Amino acid sequence: MKNITIYDIAKEADVSVTTVSRVLNGTAPVKASTKEAVLRVIEKHKFQPNALARSLIKKETGTIAMIVPDITNPFFPEVFWGSENEAREKGYTFFLCNSAGEYGRESEYLSILREKRVEGIIFVGGRINLANCPPELVQEVVDTAKGIPVVLVNGHLAKSQLHRVYTDEAAGAALAAQHVIDLGHREIAFIGGMEELTTTIQKVKAVKRKLEEHGLGLRKDRLLFGEFSITAGRELMAKLLEQADRPTAVICVNDFTAIGAIKAATERGLRIPDDISIVGFDDSPLSTAVIPELTTVTQNTNELGKLAVERIYQINNGLPAKRSTVLQPKLVVRQSTGRAPGMA
Amino acid sequence: MKNITIYDIAKEADVSVTTVSRVLNGTAPVKASTKEAVLRVIEKHKFQPNALARSLIKKETGTIAMIVPDITNPFFPEVFWGSENEAREKGYTFFLCNSAGEYGRESEYLSILREKRVEGIIFVGGRINLANCPPELVQEVVDTAKGIPVVLVNGHLAKSQLHRVYTDEAAGAALAAQHVIDLGHREIAFIGGMEELTTTIQKVKAVKRKLEEHGLGLRKDRLLFGEFSITAGRELMAKLLEQADRPTAVICVNDFTAIGAIKAATERGLRIPDDISIVGFDDSPLSTAVIPELTTVTQNTNELGKLAVERIYQINNGLPAKRSTVLQPKLVVRQSTGRAPGMA
Description:
The structure is a homodimer.
Chain A: H1 6-13, H2 17-25, H3 32-44, H4 51-58, E1 63-68, H5 75-89, E2 93-98, H6 103-115, E3 120-124, H7 135-147, E4 150-153, E5 163-167, H8 169-182, E6 188-191, H9 198-213, E7 223-224, H10 230-242, E8 249-252, H11 255-267, E9 277-279, E10 296-298, H12 301-316, E11 324-327, E12 330-332
Parallel strand pairs in A: 1-2, 1-3, 3-4, 4-5, 5-11, 6-7, 6-8, 8-9
Antiparallel strand pairs in A: 10-12
């Protein structure tokens, strides 16, 4: 495959490189007959303009990147899926960067993405989920956003004024709590999630408030923090079940934790939901794969991804772009929750 | 953030652009005192060389892309994870392209990646998994590989001579069949996977061969094709269970199918493995999340991804690169398989 360049095309069509560039990019009118001649040569050589060269001329690369903390947690592929579909529709291609939840890796990727002059960065999880993000980590994102549109998904950086698309996670957790209270549960626990992350903090706060509204409290020994993984859910549930008076309903920080909790409870001979009710969060594809199917909170994952790309598109094209968009979650009742034991 | 260019650095350091480039890229020796002066100016402005411009000089972008058919199937994030870690170690960054299993999208991505002059493409699933891939789809990949190293993971394009890294899926399926035969099963079924894909064909052939070795056959009504999804596994298992004489062991094309199969069997009141044994394939993280935990075949997913990046690195650096690398799968026995009903 000989590498035909824009110069070869210009030479053969007997026009200037600028003219070829105009034909390729539609940046300025070209006489019809000249345009035809150029297109004939392009067609003849099946010429593919070098995106690198073209982007240097047009000062854009047509690429959006997404930074996620864990590609193996199904929540993130679902957000990615929504973004990628929207990106393709808008003519962007998609970089995926996996930070493994390490802030150092995030910094590294931010630096690479600035270098590569991507047209937008979607930031999900990691530092934007910290209740107290160190100022230098905030500044790095703010500085990046001066040159490249940045959209935060389900996260926040204090005083940063960055564009955000997020689920009202507190409202979702309140729905979960209201649901088990309505089913007659009074002994309610919350498990999973790191204590320093806003996603955890918001959910815990909302659950506490909802319980208090009903004259109930969230006991200290029924609030157990951990990772967002299946393994963590399993371990935390095991701890809960070792207690003398175990809860009858457990609200989990996400579906992974809930799946682990189901496993731990079942292994100990408990029937779900007859003996204990379990609620997840995310409505990931796995929630219908487990037995029993998971009652959970859906947060329109695809839509989050889609809206993030839409914002980047709007910013890049000088269109009005909402600074902050909040999506309302919904409760999805399946099989893992039922009336409290002893209730009619 | 003022955009400092290489020209500004050159001007302020009172050297040529070429000298700055040499300092940045280490492409030729520069006098120590000059180098120091240039580095001082670079440091002062916190100058980040534009990767686009740099790659035009160096004719490389430091980017590897992976094309996958379905980012929400955990097998692919696991391969990606292996590749991404290796890529970072080798100084590459990583593009992820999701084709949704559409050959048209694959073509589009190949074209974009050629344009973007990535340094390597890892191709997983999609057309490379077709038993009879149309010649023009093969040619497209072969043409791409003339300019960019391409590595196929768990797939193949006839007569293409492309680099491959793959699991011996036939050997894996044979292990699964041998396992249930050893447990005394005689009534064995195979479900899942599209009939035209090599991953399905190889597994079915291997299971048939293994059964024949033991004087058994794979009945036509016990070989049911479908998608690779949980939903498909559920539907196919439901079909099997409607039959008058149902099998006592079911080998599934992948873990997703097996999880769906477990669900269908449990919903019908069957106990696993007492009434029916189920085997998966892939050993995805989900295989330990379900109840009962899945007996499955591990194919060293991370290792596949890692080796693919290694090949690209070797090709790009003129090192010897094995044309074809095969990994041997292993059986992982967990809780979803047991002795055939009626056996001691």
